[in-house]
Amino acid sequence: MKLIKTIDNLDASVNIPGSKSVTHRYLIMAALAEGRSWLGNGLWCDDTRYTASALKSFGAQIRHSSEAIEVIGMGGDLSCPAEPIYLENAGTSLRLLTAVACLGQGSSILVGNERMHTRPIEELSAALQPLGGVVESLQERGYPPVRIHGSGLKGGSTIVDASRSSQFVSAILLVAPYASQPVEITVQGLVSKPYVDVTLDGMSRFGARARWLDEKTLRVEAPGRYLAGSYDVEGDCSSASYFWAAAAITGGRVSTQNIHRESRQGDLAFLKILCQMGCRAEWHDHGVTLYGGKLRAIEVDMKDMPDMVPTLAVTAAFAQGKTVITNVGHLRIKESDRLRAIAEGLEKMNIQVDEKEDRLTIRGGNPRGAMITSHHDHRIAMSFAVAGLLAEGVRIDDEMCVSKSFPQFWETFEQLYR
Fold first, then answer.
1. What is the DSSP string of 127-196?
2. Strands 299-301, 352-355: parallel, antiparallel or unpaired by DSSP?
3. How far is CA 136 from CA 51, 122, 125, 148, in A?
4. What does the alpha-carbon distance between residue 145 and residue 395 come to, in Å, rounded to a whole number?
5. Ordered alpha helix ranges (H), 221-308
6. Which of 179, 279, 369, 387 is exposed most, by the fewest CB atoms within 10 A?
7. Distance (Å, rounded) from C-alpha 272 to C-alpha 250?
């Protein structure tokens, strides 16, 4: 249990670790490339360790140091491990690696914990089939654990229902250069589109040719390959959001280093939302500084920024008026049912919340301290920690669940008090 201390005058600067989303993708591309790659500022957290461990099972060599993550790739020639690959609750890892396993010759099994086995994968399985991928659910149809019958991908055309996760699209994109023919993907109902753009940006950096043909169709040229080399991982905008929210609710100032104005990460747009609520952002050479202000409620569609919903909800609890967060039903299949977890936490803090299937309405007020149940969800724990800077007596259970994406979160959070 972590007791959060309140703060009077917030004026701090913090360094933001590398992006989890980018690190996952770079690890996979470097592992599929032939030769040695160095990933500078790569994030080494629970989730990316699971991805790295799985890639090692397929034949890549990966070594982490304080300077970089070193990857010696397989050149697209994967071996299939005899033992199941365990991925805990790393949903990104499981979805991306399901597609990677299709490139092997033989069967691979991917398993996770109990929560992982409730997270859907049917849309990815269906989309891989026309390309030559065979994915079999071993328990409940459409859910992990899965057995992948690898025999390479032939390429061609497929349709992806991405209404529940953009990761289904990214998974196919990442392996498409190793298909025997070009791949065209028709995308339906896409949520979190910026994550697909992050994937395309990484593929371009690694030498692959992939692009949007129109607003619903992607094309990847194949056969092709990724190029080994040195690649830097930019700072994680999702991780930075907690410190931006800290400035917002306290009326203070926080400078976040290692955040780039030109980033493709969709969560960078959270800055604009905070500015609409009354804050001010100022860019500088090494990052961005957010100045808090008198917060006002907004209505906002968060389809493309699902990971920012817990942070926004906590910020909205301190804003004047009624904040409406829409188009976020896909948060119910994250590490927890995040809409339920958010509503539960805010209600404990004496904040009125109207929870619907795909939206939250939050009436701002004066949150009081409470014991917050994280539901083993890193984003719930980190978001509600921010509330404790102003609401005395906030306590977070299972506080070390933050290691899933931000192992140094509590050490970085302490820098706010200096």
1. HHGGGT-EEEESSSTTSSSEEEEEE----EEEEEE-SS-THHHHHHHHHGGGSSS-EEEEEES---HHHH
2. unpaired
3. 20, 9, 8, 6
4. 34
5. 237-250, 270-276
6. 369
7. 18
**Are the C-beta atoms of 364 and 319 separated by less than 8 Å?**
yes
CA 155 to chain CA centroid, Å, is: 27
Q: Are 339 and 328 in contact (CB under 8 A)?
A: yes
In sequence order, the β-bridge partners of residue 256 are 14, 288
Q: Which residues pair with 313 in a beta bridge?
A: none
Beta bridge partners of 214: 217
Residue type at 169 in one-letter notation: V
In three-state secondary structure terms, 315 is helix
Q: Which one of the listed residues 46, 304, 307, 377 is annotated catalytic?
A: 307
223 neighbors 152 (Cβ within 8 angstroms): no
Residue 267 annotated as catalytic:
no
From first to last of its 418 residues, the chain has per-residue pLDDT tens of: 999 999 999 999 999 999 999 999 999 999 999 999 999 999 999 999 999 999 999 999 999 998 899 999 999 999 999 999 999 999 999 999 999 999 999 999 999 999 999 999 999 999 999 999 999 999 999 999 999 999 999 999 999 999 999 999 999 999 999 999 999 999 999 999 999 999 999 999 999 999 999 999 999 999 999 999 999 999 999 999 999 999 999 999 999 999 999 999 999 999 999 999 999 999 999 999 999 999 999 999 999 999 999 999 999 999 999 999 999 999 999 999 999 999 999 999 999 999 999 999 999 999 999 999 999 999 999 999 999 999 999 999 999 999 999 999 999 999 999 8
**Which of these, 383, 400, 395, lies nearest to 270 by C-alpha position?**
383
| Residue 394 backbone dihedrals phi, psi, to 5 degrees | -75, 130
- Its pTM stands at 0.96
What is d(CA 235, CA 30) in angstroms, rounded to the nearest whole number? 19
Residue environment code for 253-264, b if the CB has 16+ CB neighbours within 10 A, otherwise e:
bbbbbbbeeebb
φ, ψ of residue 323 in degrees (nearest 5): -95, 135
In 3-state terms the chain splits into helix, strand, coil percentages (rounded to 5) of 35, 25, 40
- Domains annotated for the chain, with CATH where assigned, are 2-16+236-417 (3.65.10.10), 20-220 (3.65.10.10)
With contact defined as beta carbons under 8 Å apart, do 69 and 52 qualify?
yes
Is residue 167 within 8 Å of 92, Cβ to Cβ?
A: yes
